[in-house]
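Honest question from a wet-lab person: if I give you the sequences of every part of a complex, can you actually get the arrangement of the whole thing, not just the pieces? Trying it with mine:
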Amino acid sequence: MNYPFWDVPLIGAGWVIGIISIFHIMISHFAVGGGLLIPILERRALALKSPEWMGALRRNMLFFLIVTGVLGTVSGVGIWFSIGLAQPAGTSALIHIFVFFWAIEWIFFLIELTSAAVYYYSWGRVSDRLHVALGWVYCVSSFFTLFVINGVLSFMMTPGEAWLKAGTMQEFSGAVLDGFFNPTYWPSLLIRFLACLSLAAVFVLMSSSRIRGEMEPALKSGILRYLLRWFVPALLLLPVGLFWLLYMLPEPQLNLLRLPELGLLPISMTVIFASVLTAVAAFLLVWPRPLKFTPARAWILMALAAVVVSSAEYSREMLRKPFVIAGYMYSNGVRVADVERFNAQGFLTKSLWVDEENDFAAGKAMFRGQCMICHTWSGYRSMNRLLKGRTRESLQSVLDMLHEYKPEYHFTQYMPPLVGTLAERRALAVWLENKARLKVEEEEEH
Amino acid sequence: MEVFPLIDAVPLPAPVVIFKILLLITSSLHFVAVEVLLGGILLAVLLNRLGPTQSRYSVAGRERLSAAWVLAKRMPVVMTFVINFAIPPLLFTQVLYGRALYTSSVLLGAFWISIVGILMFCYWLLYRFAERCRSGDSGLLPGILAWLAAASVAKILSMNMTLMLRPEVWQEMYALSARGILFPPTDPTMMARWTFMVMGGLVGAGVWMLWLGSRPSPNPSVRRYLSRVGGYLLLVGVPIQLFFAWRVWATQPDFVRILALKSGLFGASWPLFFLCWVALWAVGFNRVRWNGSIRLAGNLSAVLGVVGFFFMTVARDAIRDVTLAHKGFNIWERSASVQTNYLILLLFFFLFIMGLCLVGWMIWASWKSRPLPDMITEAAPAKGYLVRTVAEPPRKEPAPASAAMSRGAFLGTALTGVGILYAGGVSYALYRYLGRPVTAALADTEEAPQEQTPEGEFILKGAAQIPPQSMMTFIFKRRFSLLIHHADDTWVAMDGVCTHMGCEVRYESNKNRVYCPCHGGVFDPKTGAVLVGPPKKPLPLYNVELRGEDILIS
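Yes, you can. This is the full assembly:
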């Protein structure tokens, strides 16, 4: 247990990452997809020589700038803050491996933000050609932010045999490109890009739904039908990307889909059905009567798109189990290479984060260091509920099973092993038993 | 014994010196943006406020309002760059100093993550502020709130950057709470660091205004005004920030000062920082006193400001390194585990240079574009108070039912909601931490009527009547104190202020203990001795003497 543990009551630190991430993913995907749509729409407006199209685009731009520049930027930094708090060991490992990739992403991010600001503030003040060029700079730079971060995210799920085999100190750095362009890199990139297009289109659909049909019928129907050309194919292609990703997954992770306790199969199916449903719904709601496309209908599409994106992200997170970096580091920050050492020499031997030198403190530190990244005491994945009614003996036997980590045990597919010496594991059992007993007493008192 | 967590098992992908150079360059750019933001907001608020105090159609009044607008409309963009330039320093700091930084961040977890909410709130306020300034309205509230938000982020950052240098207090904080809701124990350097950064805003804003004033514009009078105010700001701001730089230095422990003076990096950087600031002061003086060239003042102050902030960053970094090295963490020792990937490194530098060129080209293209007027004229929107002060009573124009307005309103409402929730959350957390929950618990216990004897003793009138297993509170020698009547009919009076962090303790008769609700300290209700928890010292006892129905405390 190298770093202190951040104890977030009820939801756990993991959900702090989750909440910020879901928010960020919606915004950042919108930003990347919007990056492509903006210059395309501006070109279209110039080709049509339509000041109405241009006006509608310009009205959207400030909204776009604020949403992506403010909410996207800050929530992106927020993810970074939250992973450093919830999972310092994993964050440290990733940053050591990919520091220059992240630095490259920052360069594209700098270009992206500058181009967005210059694009907006130079509207009507530079030539059309230059303005469209600025839009394309935004488009390319925002795509490359996705290109880079996708490497890190897909690496966490499938670092690939090449990287894992070279995972010794001497060969580490040479394998980093193998890790970056890992087996699921390209399918992930396709899925994310399609999600970006869909989200950007749904945001523009939403804002276009506010155009008054009776005042500007040509503008409204023109924009809405044009957007469908991007929205519907992107959504219909999304399941293809998902199947490609699943095809590229190694066997152990694919097996996670079959575990009923994780519920991953229905969620993955949700991605497929919801994306097809959204595409069909968008077509039916927009194409026949675009002038009747109201904000309420746009919200339906937005909700469906949110279901697609959040279930896809949830599946991706779960498919990584029981690791934070598959094959390298378990979700509780224990490196695979350290398991034997911890079992022989102790998990807490060099830890600075054991309050006192007694079993109770050791048990608490074991719990914090190995369990609390996924479990809270009485909230999300409540240990209190899981332990209810267990005796010390049954607790010890559960902990022993977690420690033995035999492949035939079901949980080994999604839970990390319990590491540490026998004394440390017994200390954990004592602490859990006491904590559960105190809780029962407290409940009885009330 | 090791006081820092272990170094990451993954080797460094480039030599320490590369990270160091990148860290210093990007940090200094971040600090430039931070200082421009902190000082710029305040200046814009001031100019926006002072504008209408002039004669309503006077040139001076319009210049002030216009200058406020020139500053305020750029604030969201400045904020964007504050955040953007914070990313690489944070990245490189995590690589070099992760074992210290992750630890201190976790110990301040709740504060650290709250930065996300504060930044969003600040951003929104800056847009509101810019809009108010554009229309000539008063932007006092959003402006001040935005500054407070930005300054509080600076406070949390300086708190963390100080805590990462103090491994000696980490375990104590962690033992008290793993939730990251505790302020670190007081350290004299913390406030000095923060005030230094905040006061640097005067210099940052001065440099920025001089530079803005030197750009071509269709409204030269506003630009001249900006440049002149920038000059005054440097005259005032440079000595103030130098004073606070001295404060930062003076509050450092002796060993840091001795080691820093021996460090070549520090020895070279602080005199250069000092020289840059003196030169900046001279630029300001030349601009104000002798009405020197606007163009020259703008360019010179920009160069001196950026270079000076770079040397300030180097000096700051040297102080950090010697502090950590003295406590057992020398970052240069990591040179042994470096596995440089030259391909990636070259790719990064190539893209870095190309990226900067592209950004430069875009900024150049934006300068070359047709400029917008900076002047708020008499034809300014009617809701501006420039015009409103003439004759019209304040009135709000009905909002046009355009899509943009609806979105703006929606976003405004959503962000206000988030802001209120956030402010509520932070206030509640602060209340829980700083508040004294015991006060509520004691609400049903009466405070004893008391009088003082000529000998300085206290007589608690009628106190002997309280039943066994109950307590009474009183103030003795200006201290909150407890009188406990035990079940065995013994009486104990003790100091009621926890010896740990000064919270008020309470007697819990059902558990027969004296309990501190702040951090869970438990004391013996008869002897005052510490039974459990963080306090180290017992609660002092007083002498108790029964006198009929009264009790004498001495």
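Two things worth pointing out. Residues 158 and 541 of chain B are 40 Å apart (CA to CA). Chain B touches chain A through 81 residues (CB under 8 Å).
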